[in-house]
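Readers outside the structure-tokenisation community will struggle with the description of the input data as it stands. Showing the layout once, in full, would remove most of the difficulty. For illustration, here is how one protein appears when written out as sequence plus structure tokens:
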Amino acid sequence: MSAPAHPAQTLHSPTPVLSVGPVVLPAPGRAVDLQVRVSAPVTGNELPVVLLSHGLGFSNNLSSLNGYAPLADFWAARGFVVIQPTHLDSRTLNLDPDIPGVAAHWRTRAEDMKSK
């Protein structure tokens, strides 16, 4: 039997994970710069990327940046780079909902996930 073509195909053998956050990305025209957490296996290169942008429900405790760590770690340990953004509707940012762009979360979430 041959070895998997890519580490992501080895879903049964987890690898240690490194997570870094917040990584602040300049975002001109956005109410605040984009904060993300990046999780990845400690080894590997040319890894596939998962953009983990969860739910639209509010959490009083965790943002996208800090929430869902077990899920992010699961995928990272299996060969994926996982990027978790903190969207403008996150309560952890304490933004006034009247700031342009904050209330239109369905638009800003899509913008947050686009490469510029």
In short: The chain has one domain: 20-112.
